[in-house]
């Protein structure tokens, strides 16, 4: 069965968006130009354009035409435990990580409470700026207890996933608890993420647990509001089971 013509047109337009032929903020050709280019009817062209509008690549502007939108990244870690690199690579995005800080330090009261540590216990503090297609997307500060993680300071986290490293030590994160807030970017965070000061950020607090219930990770992630949206899958059967258990 041959592919519908509108899908071929949509695929061609999307390829030109992604390779920069139609850059962000530019107008794609008018309907009549596309009709002539592809030798199809107006409804076929409109169906192709609507598909890309529905997918978030295009936006119709009254009296102007159809414009290429800034595409937001669907962040699905809200219901899947996987590394940033895994999730971005699955979407066809090129990733990069800059380690801004990696050191041992005394745990603050907040970190002690999150990790269940004694007051004198030291922690690793790992501060990473994560990129997708050369755009800074998220600033992540992770805290981990030093005691069970000898030699962690030797790992190059510009190349190595934190979750992969923990799994290699038989300390895989198998359960997480996340809290979401929306906050305004302060001066330092705004500069690192290349957004205006006071721009909205998605602010996630994550506690990562191993299979035996040990809290091994406490992370604070600040996601750009203009580049990200979050996907939540809710299973009615699981919800009902949770209600009955509680």
UniProtKB/TrEMBL annotation:
Give the source species: Loigolactobacillus bifermentans DSM 20003
Q: Does the keyword Transcription apply?
A: yes
Offer one example of a GO biological process linked to this entry.
negative regulation of DNA-templated transcription
Query: What domain of life does the native source organism fall in?
Result: Bacteria
Report whether Transcription regulation shows up as a keyword of the record: yes
Molecular functions (GO terms) = DNA binding; DNA-binding transcription factor activity
This chain's protein is named Transcriptional regulator
Against InterPro entries, the record matches this protein to: Bact_HTH_transcr_reg (IPR050679), Chorismate_lyase_/UTRA_dom_sf (IPR028978), Tscrpt_reg_HTH_GntR (IPR000524), UTRA (IPR011663), WH-like_DNA-bd_sf (IPR036388), WH_DNA-bd_sf (IPR036390)
Ranges for domain HTH gntR-type come to 3-71
Q: Sorted alphabetically, which keywords does the UniProt record give?
A: DNA-binding, Transcription, Transcription regulation
């Amino acid at each position: 069965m041959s592919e519908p013509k509108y899908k071929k047109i949509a695929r061609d337009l999307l390829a030109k968006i992604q390779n920069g032929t139609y850059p962000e903020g530019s107008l794609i050709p008018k309907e009549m130009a596309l009709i002539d280019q592809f030798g199809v009817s107006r409804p076929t062209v409109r169906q192709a354009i609507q598909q890309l509008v529905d997918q978030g690549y295009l936006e119709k502007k009254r009296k102007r035409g159809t414009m290429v939108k800034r595409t937001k990244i669907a962040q699905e870690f809200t219901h899947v435990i996987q590394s940033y690199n895994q999730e971005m690579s699955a979407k066809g995005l090129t990733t990069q990580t800059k380690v801004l800080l990696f050191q041992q330090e005394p745990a603050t009261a907040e970190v002690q409470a999150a990790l269940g540590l004694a007051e004198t216990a030291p922690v690793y503090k790992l501060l990473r700026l994560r990129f997708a297609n050369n755009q800074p997307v998220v600033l992540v500060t992770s805290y981990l207890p030093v005691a069970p993680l000898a030699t962690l300071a030797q790992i190059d986290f510009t190349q190595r996933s934190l979750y992969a490293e923990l799994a290699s030590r038989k300390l895989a994160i198998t359960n997480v608890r996340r809290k979401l807030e929306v906050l305004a970017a302060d001066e330092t965070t705004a500069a690192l993420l290349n957004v205006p000061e006071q721009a909205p950020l998605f602010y996630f607090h994550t506690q990562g647990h191993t299979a035996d219930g040990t809290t091994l990770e406490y992370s604070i992630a600040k996601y750009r509001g203009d580049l990200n949206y979050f996907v939540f899958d809710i299973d009615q059967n699981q919800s009902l089971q949770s209600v009955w258990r509680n």
